[in-house]
Design brief:
By secondary structure, the protein is mainly alpha-helical. It has one domain. Helices cover about 55% and strands about 10% of the residues. It contains four helices and two strands; from the N terminus they run αααββα. A two-stranded antiparallel sheet has the order 1-2. The protein starts with 12 loop residues before the first helix and ends with a helix.
Length: about 90
């Protein structure tokens, strides 16, 4: 994975997208979109984006949709998301 900007280094929407995507892909357990939003807000401290909560939440939702519906690398059930490879690994263990 490439370097992902955090804090005041997040200056563009592309930086924000990279941060959101990396937070999702790093999850090792089932998670909610709210957990990603909370973590993103912490990571954005000092950035011009840290007060744009609506933009962050929309970007998280769009990214989750893409990973579930199009890429199929993420699964959604009972209000939580989980990476497909984690689910497969736990059933093969």
């Amino acid at each position: 994975m490439c370097h992902v900007a955090t804090g005041k280094d997040v200056t563009t929407k592309a930086d924000l997208q990279n941060l959101v995507t990396s937070l999702i892909l790093k999850q090792e357990q089932a998670f909610t979109s709210e957990k990603i939003a909370e973590t993103a807000k912490q990571e954005l401290s000092g950035s011009a984006w840290d007060t744009k909560e609506r933009v962050i939440i929309d970007l998280i939702r769009k990214t989750l949709f893409i990973l579930v519906a199009i890429d199929h690398s993420l699964l959604y059930a009972k209000g939580k998301y989980i990476m497909r490879n984690l689910l497969i690994a736990s059933t093969n263990a």
